[in-house]
Design a protein that fits this description.
By secondary structure, the chain is of the alpha/beta class. The protein has ten helices and nine strands.
């Protein structure tokens, strides 16, 4: 069991529970996580959803060493189907859950970790939080849920992708990606206090406010962009397949090196 789930005072708390591997996401964790989101969304006793991670780090992203089963011959079609569901569809579904959601982020939030934090409506970050997407070092132009331009702005998005460097919590707050930065030891308490305040608001008003903002972003092109850039992401896998026959681990050492050098 890779996800802890509890409800108290109209707040559903979903906790990533693989602290020994920095909450890296294997397929089982993602399936459990989606089930937890679905459960919270359908529970009338839940007004606000909080997503957090156990241990030092929010999430180190996809578990690149996962032994999740796959076909004997990896094809781009298979990769596309798996990633479309677990990385794109899941993230979009979490984004559109008709209840306010808050991500509490500490330590590393790397690549696939962004797919968990960005769909949340609000982000509270600990002072030690670092956000990064270094997958250009793997020959891929960014993670599957490509919210970079919307979350960071176009030039900052290019800088982060081109260099692989991390955005600090303070910088993330300055550019509007993070709502609040708090001391690490206060992260859970302050996130819960924010959730508790929001939970006092009328549920229908919260639903309508969230829909209004999300629909405005979609009219501006968010949803179409996320879908189209996902296809661009898949060309990176196609290139890796043609080079090495394996779409994920190609240039993994380069990516690890890039993370160290950039930060």
């Amino acid at each position: 069991m890779y996800i802890n789930y509890e409800v108290a005072d109209r707040i559903a708390t979903i906790s990533l529970n693989r602290p020994d591997v920095a909450n890296a996401q294997n397929m089982e964790l993602l399936e459990e996580l989606d089930a937890a989101w679905t459960k919270a969304a359908s529970d009338n006793d839940v007004a606000v959803i909080v997503l957090r991670g156990e241990g030092r780090h929010f999430s180190a992203g996809h578990d690149l060493k996962s032994s999740s089963p796959g076909p004997d011959k990896i094809t781009l079609e298979w990769i596309y189907q798996v990633e479309a569901r677990r990385y794109l569809e899941f993230s979009l579904r979490w984004r559109n859950v008709p209840k306010p959601s808050i991500a509490a982020v500490q330590g590393r939030c790397i690549a696939g970790g962004l797919l968990l934090a960005w769909p949340c409506d609000l982000i509270v970050a600990a002072e030690d939080a670092l956000f990064s997407d270094p997958v250009v070092a793997m020959g891929i132009g960014g993670v599957e849920y490509h919210g970079h331009t919307w979350e960071l702005g176009p030039r900052k998005a290019k800088e982060i992708l081109f260099t692989g460097r991390a955005v600090t919590a303070t910088e993330a707050e300055q550019i509007g990606m993070v709502n609040k930065v708090v001391p690490r030891e206060e992260l859970d308490a302050q996130t819960r206090a924010l959730a508790a305040h929001i939970a006092t608001m009328p549920s229908f008003g919260l639903r309508q406010a969230k829909r209004a903002v999300n629909q405005t972003l979609d009219v501006q092109g968010f949803y179409a962009a996320i879908q189209s850039v996902f296809d661009i992401h898949q060309t990176g896998h196609g290139n890796a397949l043609s080079v090495s026959g394996w779409p994920v681990l190609v240039n993994l050492d380069q990516m690890k090196s890039a993370i160290k050098q950039a930060n």
